[in-house]
Amino acid sequence: MSDTTETTAHRGFWAGRAALLMPAVLVGIAVFLGVGVAQMEVAGSEELFGPKAFPLITIALLLVVAVLLTISIIRNPEEPGPDGENLSSNWRSVGIVVGTLVLFIALLETAGWIIAAALLFAGVAVGLGSRRYGLLICVGFIISSLVQLVFVGLLGLSLPPGVFGLF
Amino acid sequence: MDQLMNLLGGFGDVLTPINLLYVVLGAVMGTAVGVLPGLGSAMAVALLLPLTFTLDPLAALIMFAGVYFGGLFGDSIAGILMNTPGNSTAIAGAFEGHRMAKAGRAPQALATSAIGAFTGGILATILVVFFAPTLAEMATKFGPGEYFALAVFAFVATSAVVSDSAIKGLATLAIGLAVATIGIDQVSGAQRFTFGVMELFDGVSIVVLTVALLALGEVIYVASRVGRPEDRSLIASKGRPFLSRAEFKEALPAWLRGTAFGVPFGVIPAGGAEVPTFLAYGTERKLDRRRPNPMFGKGAIRGVAGPEAAGNATAGTAMGALLALGLPTSATAAVLLAAFQQYGMQPGPLLFERSGPLVWALLASLFIGMIVLLILNLPFAPLWARLLNIPKPYLYAGISVLACFGVYASTGSLVDQMLLLGLGLLAFAMRRFDFPLAPVLIAVILGPLAESSLREAMNNSENNPLTLISTPITITLYILLVFAIVWSAVTKLRARSGEDLVK
């Protein structure tokens, strides 16, 4: 008994309550909508149910749910599983994957699809635990080139050529 | 008998070698995406949408028919062999299906599921052929009040009734409603929440949203779990892939009962096939307990047959609701709606008059697609299962490339790539904290409909709220909704007090 209280005390307030991020997101969205409604320029007559009505209803819903959610999370924090299962995420992997996606966006229209997508493939695979870097880069280039060939060459979609467009 | 003639005309359009090729292509790709863990038929349609951009409308629709059901056939394979259902609709069938596989009856489980999917889909599509035009005619009498009631029904049903936690469901519903308001207001032309970014004038594209929520969020979530012990052992499926006569007889009533559960739910906007599949599963289990030799828990063939038939029956009638009412009742239908609009088809009451030949060709290709899928899945299910042997890093890296490609090909803008990443992170947070994703999609799809019908109704009646409940149809819908809420509250309380085999 005393053991559990000790661990709970030791874990601190935020342990098992990381989900409080979600009500924060809801409030953030509500603020975003609020700013937008305040700035909105409405032409013509000011009807009761104009373009602002629905966003205002949504803001109300967001705030009410955020409050209820906060109460429910504070009351019932997430408990670690019976076998001491670790609840925290592998932030290193998440970081690599998200970083790769950011890199992809940065490179897509500058370096072009083939390079950006090959790096995207390799990066996500590394993030998910693969360590065979050389092979991944090769597979990545094969996949991105195949997509380029099939969709741009055969089907006529357009993808950014990037550096390959210089030749 | 007009319908039969029209349908025959549709078959005439579809039964050319090149169009048949598109059906097969769609079925193969749909099944492939469906088999991959975490990706279901909604993703199959969203990812393959750009593929069809360069095709003519008829060929594209024909391909979608294959993709639509292909995703549903595929997602039960992972559920049965690995106990990781690709889609929430495949969960109910995976319980007994995985037990059958463990007991060495994997091929039979796969066959039961494929035939079940076929039965449910075919019967539901036949119903659509006969009743969709009638439904469309009925829908011409729908006013803004009716459409608002339908949207509200869908919102509450998906967020509060179907999901485990009503608050979490409402939270993601609100997020979806907020996303839905971005873009130029249809009625007044006012810019809303675009902050001058031109790419946002048309709102957030449904393809971006679906891919972000269902694919990218999943990839990031899987990354966050790297390094944990996991149980992903794939059970090999060896032996005869066909059912014996006794097995067939055993499964037949369950297929039919499952279909009966699935059919009505396709028309009700309740977020897809989760409810009917679990209802079918629960019914089969109850019936099983009364038998002299209960099979549930040991790999009951009926526990696979019922839910699988229910899932595809729902998908079949959901197509009917989409075509006749313009109302997407599931995430897959929502993405499909976006696809139709891309080709200038506006689903709804007038569709059968305006784009008759296209619609009937689509319905005909649904039938052909289902037959193709049965052939593809019955003997070759073990081959599909090989896809599950792809190492996880490669699989999810491939999915990421496909996701980013799909979004870029369909919108061609970097802003959408950033939105994709942002929404993907949001979806990761939702996955991590067990928030349901379906309400977001439903809210984004039906949000504009809800808003425009609410505004129309109110402005027509000088802001008298009673106008929303002034017709028999609206009153019926709201009563049904109250009934559903009470029913779900009661079953949730009961589930909390009772021990369950599943949990």
Automatic annotation (TrEMBL), chain B:
Membrane-spanning ranges: 20-49, 61-82, 109-135, 147-163, 169-188, 200-223, 321-340, 360-381, 393-415, 435-454, 466-490
Q: What is the originating organism of this protein?
A: Microlunatus phosphovorus (strain ATCC 700054 / DSM 10555 / JCM 9379 / NBRC 101784 / NCIMB 13414 / VKM Ac-1990 / NM-1)
- Ranges for domain DUF112 come to 20-441
Keyword terms, alphabetized: Membrane, Transmembrane, Transmembrane helix
Please identify the protein, giving its name as recorded: DUF112 domain-containing protein
Answer yes or no on keyword Transmembrane helix. Answer: yes
According to the lineage, what is the superkingdom? Bacteria
Q: Known Pfam families for this protein?
A: TctA (PF01970)
